[in-house]
Amino acid sequence: MDISSKYFSKLQQPGFYSLKHGYAFLLDIYRVGKAVEAFSFVLWELMHQLRFFQLSRRYVKFTGMVGLLEATETDLLGGLKPIRLGIDNQKMNCELVTIDWKYCFWDTDSVLWGCRFSSLTVLCRSDDGSQSATAVYDFQQPIKSIFINRCNVLFVCTTGALYKSHDHGVSFRQVLQLSTSISYFLFNNGMSELPDQTLVLGEYGSLWRDKTWRNLAFLYISTDGGNTWKMSDFLIQQGVNKHVHLLRYSKLLKALLLTDGDNKKQLWLNKSLTCLDKKSNQITDGWHLVNKYHHQMGGYTSMAETEKEVLLGSDYLAGTNFIVSTTDGKRFDKRVLPDPYRRSPVMNMITRKSVSGNEIWACSYSCLSAQARSLLMYSKDGGKSWTRVIEFDGTRHKVRLVSTSHEPTKDLYISVTEFGDQEEKHQHQIYRISEKH
């Protein structure tokens, strides 16, 4: 049960009606074990309303420009098109491309691999990224995520299974069965490779059964290039009740970062890159718990880094959301997304290479209310200030970062979706952000 989604609109209504649903809301919070998280929500709300974040200058800082979505008659697909993108310099292009990428991953040879909205079960490759794509392999099931290691070995995750290719996509074999048929790992955030080529994967999925969540919080570790995998349930032993959000290696911190959801929302750090299947009370081996209490924050769903800092995006749907930065994995600078974006979780982050240095692109998204605005933005100074590229209503549209790579690239792909009354009637447009020559 998604408590935030169930009650958000009802609790906006005044009077007895709102009180009635507020009482039911509190009962549900107690029943599903989210009382501690609810306390943090209330604490952050009070700090916002009492202007504590403003007085302590803890809000995310925006530049003055903001881009919007607007219907245009000249749009190639007849739907919505980003205009006045909030890009405040003349060194960046934003162009509509013909390939409708849903997810795509650059290998080390600059070949783009991915799946398309128009063919969700088919893995494609493209040498130019925007004009043509060749169908390579049909999995017969929707592709949920893609990962490519530094040796250009392809891994494709469909619902419940992970596949590996030894021959650049000509053939695939299943190498891992996840714990349920609906499980997968989060694109760009849920699978990573360590310097010694060890692969790690965090299972994700939401399955409500018998008045509780089915626990999917498993880690998988491979030391032989992804041929065989060891399952670890150490998170479940620590009381995590739902799934893994983030499992990413940081070159800056020389550490593996792990975050979990739903009730605990913790941040774990493994600096030794050993004992990947157990908790440790010391930072020298195993997983070290960074936040002991919920209000200290964790459960991040997104991560990106520059040469100087690691940025993390929070996952507090209908609550207060943050962008958090650290340079050492010990001290964390927490910045609040201001209204009207405050209640939208930061779902994904990407680092883009530019002539002036690496940029961080981030996308926040909430589908609960038109008042909880969603936002695509980027920062040229490591998160100190942000440019709002597209502000949008998450009940009508969705904007996503759809491309990733091991090293920052000059090109970045975003998708813009206009919702129809049914999923097959959604309209998708893909744009490439690139350097202007």
UniProtKB/TrEMBL annotation:
Alphabetical list of InterPro entries matching this protein: BNR_rpt (IPR002860), WD40/YVTN_repeat-like_dom_sf (IPR015943)
Gene3D superfamilies reported for this sequence: YVTN repeat-like/Quinoprotein amine dehydrogenase
Heme found in the keyword field: no
One GO MF term attached to the UniProt entry: hydrolase activity
Pfam families: BNR
Keyword field: Hydrolase
Protein name, entry field: Glycosyl hydrolase BNR repeat-containing protein
Organism name: Spirosoma linguale (strain ATCC 33905 / DSM 74 / LMG 10896 / Claus 1)
